[in-house]
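Quick question, first post here. What does this chain look like in 3D?
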Amino acid sequence: MRRLNRISLCVFYIFLLIITGCTVGPNYKPPQAAVPSSWIGTAGQTTAAVDLVHWWTGFNDPNLTSLIERAVNSNLDLKQAQSRLRQARAARKIASAGLWPTLDSTGKYTHSRTESIATTRDLWQSGMDAVWEIDIFGGVRRNVEAAESDIKAAVEDQRDVLVTLSAEVALNYIGLRGYQQEIVFAQNNLQAQKHTAELTRQRFSSGLVGALDVANADAQVGSTASQIPLLETSVQQTIYNLSVLLGLEPAALLQELSPVSIIPVTPPALPAELPSDLLRRRPDIRRAEAQIHAATARIGVATADLFPKFNLAGSLGYQSNALDTLLKSQNSLWSLGPSFSWQFFNAGSVRANIEVKKALTEQALLTYQKTVLTAFKDVENALVAYSKEQQRHKALEDTVAANRKAVDLATQLYSQGQTEFLSVLDSQRSLFSAEDSFVRSTRDLSTDLVALYKALGGGWEDEESIAIKVKDKDKGEPNSPAKPKWFGKKKK
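> Answer (accepted):
Ran it through. Tokens below.
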């Protein structure tokens, strides 16, 4: 009974140490960032509430929507991000295991002989050992805290891949349709130039023009024809890019995407997001903040090494010369007791490690600040590019219309012998250049808007929002969108 009282008293003191123990190291404080009140680039622009989660649906292109949804289910970069998240969650379990005792079981049999007395001896042993490191100064708890922040960072990394993936698919798809439209304009111009060359040869046969006009007309036809193979190369390479983004072999989408289609039309309004929303929306900013938290917690892990480590160890075993009597009470033995260890001299390595962790935390904070500034820059760059491209697009539209009139007039006058062939040649060149620029501008309008959606962190939805929407739908509430079919869905 006296022995049991001593054990109970020992356990009581250990739990008292746990309750009154402290957690060393600094506590995490969320970083602060200066946020502008509004975007410079939205001045004079029409804004509206936009679904940033599925921003690509605003282009009203079923092919684009299908490609992005399939990419989310099969992209290899996204699968890597998902694997990193599973790794972080497993690492958190490893860290949490330090809060619990470890148990080991042993068994042993020896057969020995002593020659001096000519006897042999069998010895059977079995037992179980338990060791529990008491987290008095919170080093293990800080390690768990860091691991939980690593999970948050891995979640945001996965979301960042989603943002990048949806934007990359859209940019490649818009680029593909742009190249196809350039081919259409080039082929139309080529047919017109061939008609002009034939007219020139007829006039040459009649002695109305010289051989120089024929040569110039043929040269113009050859120059335009030479542009088409380059555009066709870009079309196929872009399809290959899209196939790889979907986790497929390069030629897998050739049959599906080779038919010519128009460039997706840009939505009429810009998303009305505030700069303050960006800190909550951009996954790279959220990831950088989680990394600060993890780095701060690891200062506490390193600081805990300055203090002694307390352990509670116990063992229970049996020892006998015969296997059939091994588990009898008279053959049992046990022990229980606390211990501590304290590395009071280490040539300053522990304090140096603390300084390392502090420097890493400072670097994480600087990375966060740079990420925030870069995010604001990305949004403003996309806004100004989209705004100026709108102006350019309108001017090019007028230029194309004027050049078409000029080509028609020059061709008509040339056929009547009222102007030189040089006028026809110049007007056709100007039209081809203007139409090519117009197509590129149409493409750039869409890609600038995609860049804006990417800069705003569009393309992902947090689990809490999904749960709320699904709950609202189950209640039958109106205007509650269903859970996106590709969130959390594995491709069969």
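The two ends are 64 Å apart (CA to CA).
DSSP finds eleven helices and six strands in the chain.
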